[in-house]
Design goal:
Length: about 90
């Protein structure tokens, strides 16, 4: 099944782009965070009741949902090995 993500909301500040996305085919929500300055990104699954909270506070949810994701976000990337690498976090 192909997931067709639609952007419901987006915000950008200081090189961080945070998007709230919905897949009609999968009936799922997620929040995508992209740091355009560092070339890093991660995603968080979001329950419908918490989607806006995750959208407004993605780092808090990433840290509480999965310490490994939070650690990966803070560690510098090796550009030769991890160009375009995504960190997927699921609550």
């Amino acid at each position: 099944m192909t997931e067709d993500w639609s952007e419901l909301a987006t915000r950008e500040s200081d090189g961080l782009v945070v998007s709230l996305l919905w897949s009609k085919s999968a009936d799922r929500l997620k929040v995508a965070v992209v740091d355009t300055r560092r070339g890093e990104q991660f995603e968080l699954g979001a329950a419908g009741t918490e989607a806006l909270a995750v959208f407004h506070h993605p780092f808090a949810y990433a840290a509480s949902a999965n310490d490994a994701c939070d650690k990966a976000w803070r560690e510098p990337l090796n550009p030769q090995q991890q160009v375009g690498k995504e960190h997927a976090c699921r609550p």
